[in-house]
Design a protein that fits this description.
By secondary structure, the protein is an all-beta fold. The chain has a single domain, classed as Beta Barrel (Elongation Factor Tu (Ef-tu), domain 3), CATH 2.40.30.70. The protein is built from no helices and eight strands. It has strands spanning about 10-15, 35, 55-60, 70, 80, 95-105, 110, 120-130. The strands form two sheets. A six-stranded antiparallel β-barrel has the order 1-2-7-6-3-8. It has a two-stranded antiparallel sheet with strand order 4-5. Strand 6 and strand 7 (about 110) form a beta hairpin. It is globular, with a radius of gyration of 16 Å.
């Protein structure tokens, strides 16, 4: 597919190194992490401020890209469900979506609240959470 090349804008630096130790969602006790940005995107991060709510899009590099169905949350008592109807990290294109709040910005290091991505996860984009239509 032409035009589908992704280039990381940074990487997650987290105390969670093993996927088995990560919580399933950020609001379930995920640690604060640092996003280490690449120098080439410094201008793109120039206006990030403490308190901003962001959506981090990551590439879940440890995912199984052949998985098409899972038991939600690993609960085998639940029916097998196609991954497009779940938040499973295992999927054909393992893009992670993490809603976080900026705690501090120190040059190319963006400290954010609870993010469930493991250490070394590539960040492919950062977008602001939009407020009401009137505030855009």
């Amino acid at each position: 597919m032409d035009g589908a090349d992704l280039h990381p804008v940074g990487w997650v630096r987290s105390p969670v190194a093993d996927r088995a130790d990560a919580v399933r969602q950020g609001d379930e006790g995920a640690p604060d992490v640092v996003i280490d940005l690449v120098p080439a995107v410094a201008a793109a991060a120039a206006d990030l401020r403490a308190g901003d709510e962001l959506l981090l899009l990551t590439w879940l590099h440890l995912a199984d890209r052949t998985t098409l169905a899972v038991h939600p949350r690993g609960d085998v008592t639940r029916p097998s469900t196609g991954v497009f109807a779940t938040r499973s990290p295992d999927r054909p294109n393992p893009i992670g979506l993490h809603r976080v709040r900026v705690l501090d910005v120190d040059g190319l290091h963006v400290h954010v609240s609870g993010c469930e991505a493991v250490d070394g996860t590539p960040v492919v984009d950062i977008k602001p959470v939009l407020g009401s239509v009137e505030d855009r």
